[in-house]
Each structure stands twice: as structure tokens, then as C-alpha cells.
Amino acid sequence: MPNLPRKKVGLIACSGEELPEGTVTRRAVRKVLETLRPDDTVTLCLPLFLAGGEGERAFARHYPTIAVDGCDKRCAALATEKYSAKPAASIVVTQAAKESGCRAIGTARHLNGSGLRLADAVAEKIVGETDRLLKRKPSDAGRAAGREKR
Amino acid sequence: MSGTRRKISVVPCSGIGKSLGAAAREAAYVLAEDLRPDKTKIVALSLLVQGDEDARREVAGGEAVAIDGCKLECAAKGLACSGASIVHKVAVFDVVRRHRGLKPEGVCDLNEDGLRLARATADQAAKIVDDVDAEDGRA
User: Fold this and answer.
1) Which of residues 109-138 of B touch A (CB under 8 A)?
2) What does B93-127 look like in DSSP terms, one character per residue?
3) Which residue in B9, B13, B16 has the most chain A C-beta atoms within 10 A of its own C-beta, making it the best mutation to test that interface?
4) Residue B124 sits in which domain range?
């Protein structure tokens, strides 16, 4: 078995360049990776599944992943399952937008304030799924949040 | 020439781990929104990876431009697997070699050097688009 990091969750953003929701997936995943759960997550590059990224495929076979998709086509979830293994969790931005009553979020190139807030909300959803998958205790999650504030 | 012209598909890298991937994506936006909006259209790489029929139909049989951030060339490979007749490769890692002074940083938000790199990459891609257009007798 390859030498893989332990106790990490792989985040796979669709990153769809045509739609603002794709930009939301990218921004949300980066926020989780950089500030909210930097010790618990890694990002996996979706196109690398197709391009033959064995590291990506191996990680997704052996560790839990969260697919973050911009729309109902769910490219990240379906491609991950096709090339590696079914994601442990799946988040769709258009559904999250409906839940939060969010409508116009800007363009794929430039999210507006509403789009940035939606990205934050999606990031929180990713954190919730990450904590669930790693069976984190509330106190652990609190320490992680403390790290973000610092 | 009359009638609807098929736009040239532009597929940027979808990488979210490095600044060069972000520059590739920004270059695609510069090309398709600012420089050649009438001749180009962005197609999401994730759709091609997943095998979306509409996206594959968009690129199949036509010439396309792949803008890649790294040597793995995921965008070019995605286009080749999706039936594009000719894949014109634009590599940000080559462009940055020709602009040694640029220090691109950021992924969600590129710094000024990253935006300059994206513009230089888009300029290179625009020349390719013009050449393809001219060869098709559509210029």
C-alpha cells in the first residue's frame, strides 16, 4: 500500500469553470484546507483521476472523500466513484444555495458578496462532514476553531 | 460568411492547489470574456472528466485550446479523450519561464503578478485562436 497520510479526508471540488457555483466549490474547499481544518484535510485534483494520477486514485480508494459539486450534474462525485471509490459525503452548491435562500452570486470569474457568503456556508458544511467522518469530539472541533482565530 | 459559427472550446486546468493552475483558469476567462469573446467558449474540465454528453459534443471534432498549469497537462488530456480534432496546448509553466520576474501567488485570489501571468498566457492563446480562425477562412 502506498505511503499515505493518516486520518485525513480528501476534498474534491468540481471547480467547474463555466458556472459561479464551480467557483464557490473551489473557494469553499480552499477555506477548509487553509484555515478551518488544515490538519484534517487534503485536496484531490479531479482531472488527475482522468490524467492518471495514481496518488489521487489510491487516496480516494483507501480514505474517505467529500465531493463538492457546483450543480446537479455532480461531476466530482460521479468521476470519483468512476475512477476510484464512492465519496463518503457529497455536497451540491445549488442545493445549499436553495437552503440558504441565496440567488444571484456573481459570475464564475468574480463572486459577489452573496457568492462569498455562500462559499463560507458551503465551507461550514464541509467542516461538518469532515468532523463526522473523522468522528471528532466537540472539544477537538473547538480547538480547531481556535486555531483559525489565531 | 453567414450562419452561426462554432466557437473554439477553451479548457483550463481545474487545479486548486497551485498558483499556476489559478493563472491558467484566469487566462481562460481573460481570453473568453475580454480578448476573444466572439470566438471562444469555456468548457469545464470536470464535465469532460465525468463524460458529460453535452460537453463532449461541444468539443468533439473541433479544434480546441487547452490551458494547463503543470506538466501533467490534465486539460489537454481531457480534450484528447473527449474527441477534439486538434488540441492546441498553452502551458502556463512555459509562459512563466519567459517572464522570470513574475512571482504568482494565490489560488482563489491571484496577486498582481499572477494576473499579469494570466494575461500573458491569454495573449498567447489568443494568437492560436486567430490562427485557427484564419485557417478556417473565418477571419
Assistant:
1) none
2) HHHHHH-TT-----SSS--HHHHHHHHHHHHHHHH
3) B16
4) 8-134
